[in-house]
Write a structure and sequence with these properties.
InterPro entries: CO_DH_flav_C (IPR005107), CO_DH_flav_C_dom_sf (IPR036683), Diverse_Substr_Oxidored (IPR051312), FAD-bd_PCMH (IPR016166), FAD-bd_PCMH-like_sf (IPR036318), FAD-bd_PCMH_sub1 (IPR016167), FAD-bd_PCMH_sub2 (IPR016169), Mopterin_DH_FAD-bd (IPR002346). One of its GO terms (molecular function) is FAD binding. Pfam families: CO_deh_flav_C (PF03450), FAD_binding_5 (PF00941). Keywords: FAD, Flavoprotein, Oxidoreductase. This protein has 295 residues and is an alpha+beta fold. The protein has three domains: 7-52, Uridine Diphospho-n-acetylenolpyruvylglucosamine Reductase, domain 2 (2-Layer Sandwich); 59-173, Uridine Diphospho-n-acetylenolpyruvylglucosamine Reductase, domain 3 (2-Layer Sandwich); 179-290, 2-Layer Sandwich (Enolase-like, domain 1). Helices cover 33% and strands 25% of the residues. The strands form four sheets. The chain has a five-stranded antiparallel β-sheet with strand order 4-5-10-6-7. The protein has a four-stranded antiparallel β-sheet with strand order 11-12-13-14, sandwiched between helices. A hairpin with a 2-residue loop joins strand 8 (153-155) and strand 9 (158-159). Helix 9 (228-234) packs antiparallel against helix 10 (244-252) and helix 10 crosses helix 11. The longest helix is centred in the C-terminal third of the chain and has 26 residues, at 266-291. The protein is globular. The mean pLDDT is 96. The structure holds flavin-adenine dinucleotide. Flavin-adenine dinucleotide binds at residues 29-37, 39, 54, 74, 100-102, 106, 110-111, 113-115, 117-118, 120, 123-125, 166-167, 191, 193. Flavin-adenine dinucleotide (FAD) binds at residues 29-37, 39, 54, 74, 100-102, 106, 110-111, 113-115, 117-118, 120, 123-125, 166-167, 191, 193.
């Protein structure tokens, strides 16, 4: 199928892009890699009179260390994120998550910012951003603001970003070498959106206790979720006393909007989510213990 007719705009700067958004209002939509938006337009699930293409704006691309955070431009492609050595060192969870994002053809055009702005509850980058307390930088004709990932995802494909705002970059906090990271998910075919999955970062202290834990869940609600109860349960506990299956069970507690659809019932997703969390915990804990030297 073909999209309904639209006017195509290719601004030369991000300021021009937000100017167009302010001028054209609700009839306009940002186009980045097009890997989510174009299928929706083609299937006539969405209509816009104007598309504003930001995919060639150099100021929205790049990967830079900024203090103890890593800044990634919203227009940086998923392939660039997944293959960048700096990302692998500073935010390994993003590198581990990338191969699960669709297929390589999609990752070659799809962008980090597009994935986060699209806010699919089964998307990998939204779950990583939420787990790591990333900060989302947005710009509109009214000015710039930062949004904490915890305040960003509000519903199915819904965020707190206003329609006239553009996501320009994302800042990810870096974890140190005493940490371990893992991403586990289950999909019927590789490249499909996950039925359920977990992303985990865990850090150990000098005594081998969990000093910090971040768990993001995907496919287990209308938005990506944070497994706060599981994070709290493991913090302060000696790493090797933590039972992975208990982390999985704790991660599923309190989830009250797990979807039920043709891919699986809520109960099935919950079982898969618990298993993926347990496996991710095992892998992340092994890496954290290997990187740490205990007193
Ligand atoms: C077959 C298939 C399988 C896929 N599998 C997965 C998967 O397993 N996991 C996964 O996470 N994703 C998956 N995707 C989606 C893919 O990751 C997309 O690339 C991504 O969701 C959107 O990025 P994009 O740059 O293509 O954005 P676009 O499609 O251009 O835009 C998506 C939405 O975000 C908005 N937007 C984009 N950039 C910005 C910005 N900077 N500021 C404000 N709004 C913006 C657009 O207006 C639009 O509403 C899949 C896609 C396909 C077609």
């Amino acid at each position: 199928m073909k999209p309904a007719a639209f006017d195509y705009h290719r601004p030369g700067t991000v300021e021009e892009a937000v100017g167009l958004l302010a001028e054209l209002g609700d009839e306009a939509k940002i186009l980045a890699g097009g890997q989510s938006l174009v299928p929706m337009l083609s299937m006539r699930l969405a209509y816009f009179d104007h598309l504003i293409d930001i995919s060639r704006l150099p100021e929205l691309r790049g990967i830079q260390a900024r203090g103890d955070q890593l800044w990634i431009g919203a227009g940086t492609t998923e392939t660039e994120v997944g293959t960048n050595a700096h990302v692998r060192h500073a935010v390994p969870l993003l590198s581990l998550a990338t191969p699960f994002v669709g297929h390589f053809q999609i990752r070659n055009r799809g962008t980090l910012g597009g994935s986060i702005a699209h806010a699919d509850a089964a998307g990998e980058y939204p779950a990583v951003a939420l787990a790591l307390d990333a900060v989302l930088e947005v710009l509109s004709a009214r000015g710039r603001r930062d949004i904490a990932a915890a305040d960003f995802f509000t519903g199915l494909w819904e965020t707190t970003m206003a329609p006239d705002e553009v996501l320009t970059g994302v800042r990810f906090p870096q974890w140190d070498s005493r940490s371990g990271f893992a991403v586990r998910e289950f999909a019927r075919r590789h490249g499909d959106f996950a039925i359920a999955g977990a992303v985990i970062a865990v850090r150990v202290d000098d005594h081998g206790r969990v000093s910090r834990c971040a768990i993001g869940l995907l496919g287990l609600g209308a938005t990506p979720k944070r497994a706060t109860a599981a994070e709290t349960a493991v913090t302060g506990v000696p790493l090797f006393e933590v039972i992975p299956e208990e982390v999985g069970r704790a991660a599923m507690s309190g989830l009250d909007d797990i979807p039920s659809d043709l891919q699986g019932s809520a109960a099935y997703r919950s079982r898969v989510g618990a298993a993926m969390t347990a496996r991710a915990w095992t892998q992340a804990a092994q890496q954290a213990s290997a990187g740490a030297t205990y007193a």
